[in-house]
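Honest question from a wet-lab person: if I give you the sequences of every part of a complex, can you actually get the arrangement of the whole thing, not just the pieces? Trying it with mine:
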Amino acid sequence: MSQEQIIVQKFGGSSIADPIRIREVASRICRSRLAGANLVIVVSAMGNTTDDLIRLAGETAGADGAPNLREVDTLLSTGELVSATLMAIAIQSMGQDVVSLSGTQAGIRTESTHGSARISAVDPARLRRELDAGRILIVAGFQGVTEMGDVTTLGRGGSDTTAVAVAAALGAERCEIYTDVDGIYTSDPRLVPEARKLAEIGYEEMLEMAMLGAKMNPRSIELGAVYSVPMLVASSFADAPGTLIHGGEPTLEVRRAITGIPVDRNVAKITVRGVKDRPGVAAALFEPLADAGISVDVIVQNASADGLTDMTFTVARADVQRALAVARDRSEVESSEVTGDPDMAKVSVVGTGMQNSPGYAARMFRALASAGVNIEMITTSEIRITCIVRRDQAQAAAQALHAAFKLDKAAD
Amino acid sequence: MSQEQIIVQKFGGSSIADPIRIREVASRICRSRLAGANLVIVVSAMGNTTDDLIRLAGETAGADGAPNLREVDTLLSTGELVSATLMAIAIQSMGQDVVSLSGTQAGIRTESTHGSARISAVDPARLRRELDAGRILIVAGFQGVTEMGDVTTLGRGGSDTTAVAVAAALGAERCEIYTDVDGIYTSDPRLVPEARKLAEIGYEEMLEMAMLGAKMNPRSIELGAVYSVPMLVASSFADAPGTLIHGGEPTLEVRRAITGIPVDRNVAKITVRGVKDRPGVAAALFEPLADAGISVDVIVQNASADGLTDMTFTVARADVQRALAVARDRSEVESSEVTGDPDMAKVSVVGTGMQNSPGYAARMFRALASAGVNIEMITTSEIRITCIVRRDQAQAAAQALHAAFKLDKAAD
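Yes, you can. This is the full assembly:
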């Protein structure tokens, strides 16, 4: 590996939950360094630190108030500062030259939307200077800084985003995401014992998988795709090879038809019946949900009959009560009934191979029917077909689809 | 109070040890705000946070290494970021406009001596902008930033220093230090029940008191004196009036002869006997102690006899074994014997009134003799006489001096 090549490695909170694990990861990093790589390490907060800090903020805000997001951002950012400095201390004790950098020091500039800021630019000046000095860099993930000098956080999975953004800004050879899973599987191994670890996967497939239940942050994959940063997802505890997420390299020319069967069992369904079918009614329903910070996923509207229509949409299970309250509160929607069901699941088939080939939907529906699984809603994209099924049928559905599309056998 | 007047208030770690205490202090701050003051609040880390972080750093550094000071500084600085943001969250929940600022954001520029950086300048631009916007400012104490953008800490008592420096930079009317004592006493009330709280005290007297055992950071008092910042020391739990530290205002024209009797029972004595009395021998002894980070306080050298001399000096009790080892290791000092005694105490009389009046030393020695206290070492400054006595005689010494100089009766 030449002196110019840079590798970014990201370690999640469970990998560095206490001083002992931090030292284990530190010696792993030192081994990579001795193998010749220029390393930029991005760390999350240790273990449950972020949740603990959020609870502390809630207690301090008292019964009345929601804590101010700007203040919460600085508060939460301390979690990654602690883990970054401790990692630097551990690596230094093993004899390597190392320096920790906050988001501000690492040049992670963001917009000023506190709590879920988007990275606007990475100024790599200091990163380069420290790398040129021969140091291992430890960057506090999940955080950035506004033009004003205020600290922001990047929202859920933000440390992955930091890692990919830094890799893009430095032109790194690869961004390695070390986590408590050892790669991307064809389906959830807890539900489908035959699920198989993928050696590689394309960005767009991974993006669909991530949004449909695979444990990855979609934003970081999007960023990786835009800047063509090859991303390796691997275990921080074992040395097993992980899954490489990358663009259309030659080995992927012959694409698998179906790459994976992501399953999300954390889905609730809201049905609004007897809605007057006139312009603006969808906006009147969904704008207040967005204002309440409730993410709506699948939306289905049935064909209108007698000027009345039914709308069904899904939200995360935890949001079902709030979503029901908001939907029932919309007097201008004039619906006859609003009901909710928290026990749904989302089962999808994902693969770029289905793009120009007909028949995948039919095969999916046939496989589900044979397994006795009832489909409640259907939605599709170019490389994905998603069915909403009852939660207690999710496992049967995933197993049936995994077998029907022969995912237990490697295609490549 | 006019719109222009600014008051800086500093709250120590025990005053804000948990969310409940933070909310108590927050409502106190809101009351001050409603009374019309423009407020800059400086906070320490909550309770034992700093000690917990130091332990965590030690565990992570492992058996081999002392943790890197630059990394420890950023690590420790998170303690004050947490308390500053929580305080802002509490105040905001009570309806006041408020913003927290890190040392970096507050413009606290320091030299780059990690672990005990000195403030080189305070850039008040952002502080002024936020004050002009009508906000209460919460500044994370104990920390600053180097020209490079690296976080530093200011060493022991650093939050007091932050508070006084900010008060000086903003031309604040007063810097109020809220702590777990309710003011400065004529002597340690645990040893001398007649000890009386002082309503006011001059900077130089306070500086001597602070260096001799009173619970205050000498650096902050020095800074207050240089920039003429009136400092109020008061209880963060009670509303009782505290002690005002200030310069030579009219009410102090008639100075007390003696202001206080500070006592420090944390003293050890090292004696080096039979030292060859030639140039450079003192340097050969004390330079290695300084290099080892051991603070030497009182130094006494007896008159030389036969080209040999005895040197005695005091160090903090915790340092006695290390100091002994360093002193015994000095082959070039060629001493016949090095002994240590960890059970000493330092009892002083302090007062600007003694400056041009003879006889105070004689009165002090007479009072100690009458109380049966043996004096082991003596050292003086213009406004102070200090005696080193045995630790078990410190209380008798302090009580005798407190009575002899009539400190139980207010002079003003």
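Two things worth pointing out. Residues 69-93 of chain A form the longest helix (25 residues). Chain A touches chain B at residues 19, 22-23, 53, 56-57, 59-62, 64-65, 67-68, 70-72, 74-75, 77-78, 81-82, 84-86, 88-90, 92-93, 99-100, 102, 104-105, 126, 149-151 (CB under 8 Å).
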